[in-house]
Amino acid sequence: MSDDIILDIQNVTKRFPGVTALDNVSIQIRRGEIHGLCGENGAGKSTLMKILSGVYPFGTYEGSIIYEGKELNLGVGAIRQARDEGIAIVYQELTLVPHMTVGENVYLGKEPVERGTIDWSKLYADTRDILAKYRLEVTPQAIVRHLGVGKMQMVEIAKALSENAKILILDEPTSALTESEINKLMEILENLRSHGVTCIYITHKLDEFFRITDSVTILRDGKTVTTQPTRQLTQEKLVSYMVGREMKERFPRSQRRPGEVMFEVTDLQAVDPDETSRKVLDGVSFNLRRGEILGIAGLMGSGRTELVTTIFGEYGKITGGTIKLEGRELSITGARDAMHKGISLVPEDRKGQGLVLMQSILKNISLANLDQFSGFMRIDGDAELVAATRQAKALAVKAPNLEARVESLSGGNQQKVVIAKWLLSNPKILIMDDPTRGIDVGAKYEIYKLMNDLAERGVSIIMISSELEEVLGMSDRVMVMHEGRSTRTLDIAEANQERIMALATGIADELVPA
Question: At 161, which helix (H) or strand (E)?
């Protein structure tokens, strides 16, 4: 093995009952490079990372992993052993203790001890050194719960680097970050590369591979498709390797023709229910036509999610303005009330708010709609099964059966289950908050087709997205928000990324021609 190869994964196969998650996977990763790992949900990326980080120890898989010239045999205490060997992972769901300081989190479980007590001066001094070395702009004494998501991610990276990590695995590191936080993360990764730290970078945001990685390995159906220098790839090539076919368009065309106005919001104002002195909405107005997809764009903190959760009756306390459906003014008291009035919401956080992960697909789909199947003191199980099966088939949910736990599904299929649940209520207005966040390009395309089909059948859709390409690719019109206000609604023919960003950042209207 060449001296510049730090990790040589050789013919690794990992089987679960009835499923081969990895099938003879081989990858070579060079010392000090940023190596992208790309593939659809279910391609085997997470399984491979769990092997490298010791979740699946030596003996539970076939093949070998050569690390710094020696076979990596992670046995008893494999997770701790992997960290001791210099292999660290930063998961998409952060693992920090919120009420502790940055320094306490960085050295949790490995605090420096002097004469039987923790040496706090050394702990904070060492934390400060790590933060300074890698240009992580966080204060060692800061309480973690007071930090933003971007800063929390820096703490996770510092925690990994405190173990003298030689290989740092980052799993979807930008999924919850703002654009400025993403830019900062890219600077941090460049700095890590200059210090010789090897990074394995996993993301569904294809542009990030071209922005930061040196080479990319694509997995499909548990097999290695190819490893290539990033400069030799294009987004189109990457997508075709991932899905096994050429995708000439990322956003499917639709024949929909929006009809009359179905839904109107006029000068909506609302405050935080727990802190009524804080306005969360400060004058939002828009309308939505039958069979239309209205995109909502804006920077994080602009009030997009606050708007839709307030409309759904689950967040803000409305202090002014009106909401009308089919010409009638609405007063919505909560999610069930909204659903009965014809409004459904696919939430931004599917795992935390959209699903009961330990329950079956069947129970998750029917959960919000049990009154459809309830009789005197009992649930009609047969009717529940028929309805859930119909929804699962319509959305092409991939699972062994409807009794499978939702936690066992890929991200794309979990999202389909959330959508199936709310479609079962036959909504007139379907709100989708970042509906393709954290899912692969193939699953995204399926959800886009579903949205088009629903719109063509007359369902009116409000879609929030952090990806401007998605907003422009799927919307009939785009409403832009800035600091809790609607700035303008653009027809798709006049919308582009520059105009949307100008409105989202608060540039005066005269600088943004209509």
Answer: helix 149-161
CB 122 within 8 A of CB 112: yes
Q: For the beta carbon of residue 244, count every other beta carbon within 10 angstroms.
A: 11
**Contact yes or no for 306/484 (Cβ under 8 A):** yes
Q: What is the rounded end-to-end Cα distance, in angstroms, of the chain?
A: 61
Query: Do 431 and 344 form a contact (C-beta atoms < 8 A)?
Result: yes
Inter-residue contact 370 to 403 (CB < 8 Å): no
> CA nearest 296: which of 454, 452, 472?
472
3-state helix, strand, coil in the chain (%, to 5): 35, 30, 35
The three-class DSSP label of residue 11 is strand
Q: What does the alpha-carbon distance between residue 293 and residue 474 come to, in Å, rounded to a whole number?
A: 7
DSSP secondary structure code for residue 492 in this structure? G
Residue 472 has pLDDT above 70, yes or no: yes
**Please, are residues 129 and 136 in contact by the beta-carbon 8 Å criterion?**
no
Instruction: Name the phi and psi angles at 172, rounded to 5.
Output: 50, 55
pLDDT, tens digit (0-9, with 9 covering 90-100), for 330-383: 999 998 899 999 999 998 888 778 888 889 999 999 988 888 887 767 888 888
CA distance 224 to 447: 26
Question: Minimal CA–CA distance to 174: which of 156, 197, 150, 147?
Answer: 150
> Amino acid identity of 473?
G
Total residue count of the chain as it appears in this document: 514
CA dist., res. 380 & res. 372, Å (int): 9
